[in-house]
Amino acid sequence: MFQAFLIKYGEIGVKGKNRYVFEDALVARMKQVLYPVDGTFKITKEQGRIYVEAEGAFDYEETVAALQRVFGIVGICPVVLREDQGFETLSQDVMEYMHQMYEGATKTFKVHTRRANKRYPMDSMEVNAELGGRILQEFPGLKVDVHKPEIVLHIELRNHICIYSEVIPGPGGMPLGTNGRSMLLLSGGIDSPVAGYMVAKRGVYIDATYFHAPPYTSERAKEKVVDLAKKIARYTGPIRLHVINFTDIQMYIYDQCPHDELTIIMRRYMMRIAQQIAEETGCLALITGESIGQVASQTVPSLAATNDVCTLPVFRPLIAFDKEDIVAIAKKIDTYETSILPYEDCCTTFVAKHPVTKPQVERIRRSEKLLSEKIEEMVKEALDTREVIEIRKNRQ
Ligand code: ATP
Ligand code: MG
User: Fold this and answer.
1) Which one of 24, 274, 298, 314 has the largest count of C-beta atoms within 10 Å of its C-beta?
2) Which residue, 169, 190, 212, sits at the end of a domain?
């Protein structure tokens, strides 16, 4: 029955003059996700509404699933679109719609009409009353409830007629590309893919940096990170993944610095390197999956000591989340099963038995002095020899 969808978008509706920028970004992203879907689609903007119309046969499920990955969309309404051919034709279309959708149902409903076409010969109250009456006659199981109806039958009288009652939830958020680009520190764990997803959901394009420590971390561990990047790219659009060989830096820190400060110092170097790539590539902020107290390196003093080296803003969207809430999002965006695959992480290879949980920034800075200029060369070498992988997949 459906050849079209009405797209509801929330926050972007209230952005005044910027609204066009937001709508255009939304439409661009919709085109991108619909491109690999079976079917040919036309997307139109009209009077603060966006419609997706399928030309000919299309895969309904796949279309809805694709649109559900477009940030900025709050609702996807399968809609019957018709030319305005007078009230009697509208009434027939509505009856046909109701038979298809609610045959035999026992539910409450109301008709909600919007009359955008001010020349329509009936006003919206009249249309509500007339259609409501006809539905009551034809469907004995349906009753009117104007306060808390189970079904709201929307009738929009525009240049054309729009009939819908179902709103499939979208992800919400802001359209991609409306808030610049940021650099995600992406590991193979549960948290960082979720953190990237959350920031992208606010309209931010994502690139990623992964610290690899061969031979302590295997090629499989890297593949896992690539797989995670592909999973989130279904939402975030293409990701440029920078793979940094971190082995020499880690070994050098391990040899020179107090072992209980190892993790913090390593993390400071990760931030420095990610920040350098971010600055080179036009990313305006860093993103991590850190959450207060989750591990020794994420106590508040540890976070402060890590943050000490950052000049760019660091977004930590999970900072106050409990693990189970993070896991719930990871499951929803389908990264969880990949994240729990048991490959080694570069941080676990060199962890101290008793890492500091209350590092003092001054002490950490002093310890880093033990590293001499050699560390700068190693950082440069790691940056120069990084591998760059273009993650384009937005389909499974
Ligand atoms: P995650 O589940 O995201 O791996 P985690 O609980 O294992 O997080 P840590 O290992 O302390 O926590 O890492 C904290 C954050 O630092 C991660 O969320 C990620 O953003 C970044 N990070 C850690 N290890 C790496 C790595 N090997 N490459 C890139 N980023 C990393
Ligand atoms: Mg980790």
Assistant:
1) 274
2) 169
Cα 42 to ligand 2 centroid, rounded to whole Å: 42
**Residue 46 reports pLDDT greater than 50:** yes
Give the residue from 118, 146, 289, 302 showing the smallest Cα distance to 209: 289
Task: Clarify whether residues 201 and 134 are in a common domain.
Answer: no
CATH number of the domain residue 120 falls in: 3.30.2130.30
Indicate the residue among 118, 145, 169 that finishes a domain.
169
**66 falls within a domain:** yes
Q: Give the helix ranges, DSSP H, for the chain.
A: 19-34, 60-67, 87-102, 124-138, 191-200, 219-236, 247-256, 262-280, 300-307, 323-332, 336-339, 346-349, 361-369, 374-384
Percent of the chain topping pLDDT 70:
95
Residue 349 has a pLDDT of 60
Q: Evaluate if residue 333 carries a pLDDT over 70.
A: yes
Atom 10 in ligand 1: which residue has the minimum CA distance? Answer: 347
Nearest ligand 1 atom to alpha carbon 185: 30
Asked, for residue 175, whether it belongs to a domain, the answer is no
Q: Measure 187 CA to ligand 1 centroid, in angstroms.
A: 5
Ligand 1 neighbours, Cβ below 6 Å, are 185-187, 189-192, 209-211, 270, 288-290, 294-295, 297-298, 345-347
Structurally, the chain folds into a number of domains equal to: 2
Position in ligand 1 atom list of the atom nearest CA 209: 29
**Does pLDDT of 396 surpass 80?**
no
CATH no. for residue 379? Answer: 3.40.50.620
Tokens of 335: 């990264």
- For ligand 1, the distance from its centroid to the CA atom of residue 362, given in whole angstroms, is 24
pLDDT in tens, 281-303: 999 999 999 999 888 889 999 99
Sign (positive or negative) of CA dihedral 295, 297, 302, 308 = negative
| Distance, CA of 359 to chain centre | 34
| pLDDT tens string 104-139 | 999 999 999 999 999 999 999 999 999 999 999 999
SS3 5: strand
- Residue 133 alpha carbon to ligand 2 centre in Å: 61
Do the domain assignments include residue 174?
Answer: no
> Ligand 1, atom 12: nearest CA belongs to which residue?
290
Question: What's the mean pLDDT in 22-49?
Answer: 92
pTM score: 0.92
Range of the domain at 39: 4-169
* Å from CA of 271 to ligand 2 middle: 14
